[in-house]
């Protein structure tokens, strides 16, 4: 059974499009409320909730994460940049896991994952702090042999394979190559003892192939689920994705 983490960032994107100027008092008519949405995702079968607290706070806000940490009935996965400020915040909020992601161009590998080779020291500092606090660290990396090897050396228990290049190539000739890279990466990571998650650009069409990547523990999916929910409601959107993941 592959688990589903629902990324609710885009519910906050919608809220911020109208209410960016409102400083306090979320809830009430400040809508949509991503925390309420998270509860509905959990009721529909989500195994975890994922949010990315970006340094520019463009969608999820600190208050959202605090409320989610207190109200979730599943697991909270906090995506964050590899910075001292975010590390302090994560240690305070104690999510079940943190996923270290790139936020600026220079942290990004060619394909778009966090470059853990280039930023080895920075990543090590965060991973060590999380390991000491009992919070799982996941590294959002490309399916690249060197990056995976480095994840093992850094003692991160989890990786999240970046499926964006595959999703972008889905309708062209590069798809088979990108898919083979994901399969190879998953096999290598699993053989090295890492828990293998994946995410970015996964939708209701490409899930039929994504789900066949070996050793998948969890998929983190955001945009396609939130977009579908506009038409079907969040309950159907989550239930259908889970069914497609585990037919
Ligand atoms: N996983 C990570 C690490 C991400 O940064 C994102 C995008 O915020 C996702 C998964 C979800 O991607 P999408 O919104 O394309 O499903």
Structural notes for this entry:
- 45% of the residues lie in helices and 17% in strands.
- It has eleven helices and eight strands.
- Strands 1-2-3-4-5-6-7-8 form an eight-stranded parallel β-barrel, surrounded by eight helices.
- Helix 4 links the parallel strand 3 (76-80) and strand 4 (97-100).
- Helix 4 runs parallel beside helix 5 (120-133) and helix 10 crosses helix 11.
- Bound molecules: pyridoxine-5'-phosphate.
- Pyridoxine-5'-phosphate is lined by residues 7, 9, 52, 79, 99, 101, 140, 160, 199-202, 220-224.
What's the pLDDT, averaged over the residues?
95
Shape field = globular
> What is the first-to-last residue Cα distance?
9 Å
Q: Level of helix content?
A: 40-55%
Coarse structural class: alpha/beta
Radius of gyration: 17 Å
Which features does this protein show?
binds pyridoxine-5'-phosphate, 17% strand, 8-stranded parallel beta barrel, alpha/beta, 247 residues, globular
Please outline the helices and strands.
Layout: E1 3-7, H1 9-19, H2 34-43, E2 48-52, H3 62-71, E3 76-80, H4 84-93, E4 97-100, H5 120-133, E5 136-141, H6 145-153, E6 158-162, H7 164-168, H8 175-191, E7 195-199, H9 207-210, E8 216-221, H10 223-232, H11 234-245
Parallel strand pairs: 1-2, 1-8, 2-3, 3-4, 4-5, 5-6, 6-7, 7-8
Helix pairs in contact: 2-3, 4-5, 6-8, 10-11
The structure holds pyridoxine-5'-phosphate.
Residues 7, 9, 52, 79, 99, 101, 140, 160, 199-202, 220-224 line the site of pyridoxine-5'-phosphate.
């Amino acid at each position: 059974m592959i688990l589903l983490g629902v990324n609710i960032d885009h519910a906050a994107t919608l809220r911020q499009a109208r209410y960016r100027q409102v400083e306090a008092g979320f809830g009430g008519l400040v809508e949509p409320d991503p925390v309420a949405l998270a509860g509905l995702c959990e009721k529909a079968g989500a195994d975890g909730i994922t949010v990315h607290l970006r340094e520019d706070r463009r969608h999820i806000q600190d208050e959202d994460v605090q409320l989610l940490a207190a109200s979730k009935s599943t697991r909270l996965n906090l995506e964050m940049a590899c910075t001292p400020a975010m590390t302090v915040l994560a240690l305070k909020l104690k999510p079940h896991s943190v996923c270290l992601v790139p936020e600026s161009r220079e942290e990004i590998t060619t394909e778009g994952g966090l470059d853990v080779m280039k930023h080895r020291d920075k990543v090590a500092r965060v991973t060590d702090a999380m390991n000491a606090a009992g919070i799982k660290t996941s590294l959002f990396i490309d399916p690249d042999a060197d990056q995976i090897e480095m994840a093992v050396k850094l003692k991160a228990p989890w990786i999240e394979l970046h499926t964006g290049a595959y999703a972008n190539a889905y309708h062209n000739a590069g798809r088979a190559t990108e898919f083979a890279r994901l399969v190879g990466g998953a096999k290598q990571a699993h053989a090295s003892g890492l828990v293998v998650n994946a995410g970015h650009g996964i939708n209701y069409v490409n899930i039929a192939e994504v789900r066949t990547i070996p050793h998948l523990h969890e998929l983190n999916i955001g945009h396609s689920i939130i977009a579908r929910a506009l038409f079907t409601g969040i309950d159907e959107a989550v239930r259908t994705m889970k069914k497609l993941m585990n037919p």
